[in-house]
């Protein structure tokens, strides 16, 4: 009677009992992130028309700055609000650019237009505070401005007002450059309260 040989399954390579191999590359989670002033300015629900109807998502605008002369704005869209905030925050961090300040205010007056919005930015004496509202205030405070007067002269669209404020800060010129362009001394292009302080000290 022939012996029946039982076929045993061949054993392959050993599997790790810990399950699938985990990624060791987690630089984004482990790297220390710089503490910035991040503000969610607006959250709006937007719709995209597709073949089957409309697809809804959320658009988030975030302003990020270090309160020391660097500021940026980011926009994020996603089906969920937390993911949209994350995208907008990352883009705002990457878009940060230096702006020219004069102490706690701006060097000179400027009027900026973006789309239908027009924003007037005017330097103010120490102790005035930030006279602005909405997204304009968020951009100015994140940049490090503590004394300023502002006025909206056009459309009140939130995103356009933020863009106009950001362009105004980025196009600011320091007193030396402004005096050279206008053919005046540095003291003559300074704000009134600063000129009076220089005269008193002299």
Describe the structure.
The chain has 202 residues and is α+β, with helices and mostly antiparallel strands. It contains 6 helices and 8 strands; from the N terminus they run αβββαββββαβααα. Strands 1-2-3-4 form a 4-stranded antiparallel β-sheet. A hairpin with a 4-residue loop joins strand 2 (53-65) and strand 3. Helix 3 runs parallel beside helix 4.
Give a topology summary.
Blueprint: H1 27-30, E1 37-50, E2 53-65, E3 70-78, H2 81-94, E4 97-98, E5 110-114, E6 117-123, E7 130-131, H3 134-143, E8 148-152, H4 158-170, H5 175-182, H6 192-201
Write a brief structural summary:
This protein has 202 residues and is α+β, with helices and mostly antiparallel strands. It has helices spanning 27-30, 81-94, 134-143, 158-170, 175-182, 192-201, and strands at residues 37-50, 53-65, 70-78, 97-98, 110-114, 117-123, 130-131, 148-152. A 4-stranded antiparallel β-sheet has the order 1-2-3-4.
Name the helix and strand elements from N-terminus to C-terminus, one letter apiece.
Answer: HEEEHEEEEHEHHH
- Give the C-alpha Rg: 28 Å
Residue-averaged pLDDT: 82
Q: Which word captures the global form?
A: elongated
- Hey, roughly how much beta strand do the residues contain? 25-35%
**Helix run count:** 6
Q: Give the helix proportion (percent range).
A: 25-40%
